[in-house]
From TrEMBL:
<feature type="region of interest" description="Disordered">
    <location>
        <begin position="1"/>
        <end position="27"/>
    </location>
</feature>
<dbReference type="Pfam" id="PF13518">
    <property type="entry name" value="HTH_28"/>
</dbReference>
<protein>
    <submittedName>
        <fullName>Helix-turn-helix domain-containing protein</fullName>
    </submittedName>
</protein>
<dbReference type="InterPro" id="IPR055247">
    <property type="entry name" value="InsJ-like_HTH"/>
</dbReference>
<feature type="domain" description="Insertion element IS150 protein InsJ-like helix-turn-helix">
    <location>
        <begin position="47"/>
        <end position="98"/>
    </location>
</feature>
<dbReference type="InterPro" id="IPR009057">
    <property type="entry name" value="Homeodomain-like_sf"/>
</dbReference>
Length: 157
């Protein structure tokens, strides 16, 4: 019989916010080892303390990076982010596109008007019309998701 994994609500919350340190075991700083206030799983706290160790305590950059389980370039990125944006700069950025850059509101409105005028139009026909009108090739699923979001906004369940 497999034992159930012990739930850690803080780790779950950190993961949900995208700030769970993927390598907490690499953090060897004495504060994180001996003091329960410091949590090696909290990526923002680890990066902040790493930069603070260098700036306030005068620890060499290479030593601070090694102690906190990161590379020197990662240290420099954290230092720069902290200087330019404060603590918020230490939050990881969302990767990938920040939204449907091809399926704009204008494209969705165009397709909605097409479908209103001719409900029998298939997604393939709509894709052809989008390419002809806007000069962009949109994937079928991207258009379907955009239309579903629009429908959901109009008819919240």
């Amino acid at each position: 019989m497999a034992r159930a994994k012990k739930r850690d609500p803080k780790s779950e919350a950190l993961a949900q916010d995208g700030v769970l340190n993927p390598n907490p075991e690499a953090v060897r700083d004495p504060s994180f080892v001996s003091n329960s206030f410091f949590d090696a799983k909290d990526l923002v706290q680890v990066r902040y303390e790493m930069v603070r160790r260098h700036q306030v305590d005068g620890v060499a950059i290479s030593e601070a990076a090694e102690t906190f389980g990161v590379t020197r370039p990662t240290f420099y990125k954290a230092q720069s982010a902290l200087q330019t944006a404060g603590l918020a700069g230490l939050l990881p950025n969302r990767r990938g596109p920040k939204g449907g850059h091809k399926v704009s509101a204008e494209v969705v409105a165009f397709v909605a008007a097409l479908k209103a005028a001719r409900p029998e139009l298939t997604t393939s026909h709509c894709l052809d019309a989008i390419e002809a009108r806007f000069g962009v090739k949109v994937h079928r699923r991207s258009l379907e998701r955009a239309l579903a979001r629009k429908k959901k906004r109009l008819n919240p369940a």
